[in-house]
Amino acid sequence: MALSPTQKKKVRDAFVVYCTRAEQWRLNRGYSQRRPVLGYGLSAKADQLDDCSGFVSKVWYKGMQVTGIHLTDPLGFHFSGFGNTESMQAYLTHEAPLDKYRIGDMALWGPNDWDTHHTAICRKAGTRSTAIFTSHGHQSWRFTDDAPEPITLRNFPQHLIGVFRHPALL
Prior knowledge:
By secondary structure, this protein is α+β, with helices and mostly antiparallel strands. It has one domain: Alpha-Beta Complex (endopeptidase fold (from Nostoc punctiforme)). It has 3 helices and 8 strands. A 6-stranded antiparallel sheet has the order 3-8-4-5-6-7. It has a two-stranded parallel sheet with strand order 1-2. Helix 1 (5-24) crosses helix 2. It is globular, with a radius of gyration of 14 Å.
């Protein structure tokens, strides 16, 4: 179910706050691919272990928690802590319009169009060169720690499969 314009704005605002704080408090986060992902609902400042898809799922959960608006897990597993980039690709069927990326859009990378390895979530709308995505995981290259960091799609060194929009934000 798509949200109203007012609901979309509230959810996107919550995403920006969480992603920005996660980047600021990046050293409180470590990298782990364990399942189930733990720590749904914790503050972005809290000590946590995530991988890229777990982080994106937590962003969506926090948006739901902060706004009180029901959202569905982009991993397709009802915020249970399961799922990964492959389940995300199966769930997200709507590609975002090229160079019209909005907050909440999710980028997927991999060696080819059917083998996903990484994801990030848009926290500043824009184009391939100007939109800012929050990326978390060992695929990040600028820092020695695997923690949330801002990236642009243009500067990410992997094959971009696509940028997808969650059904609630269509």
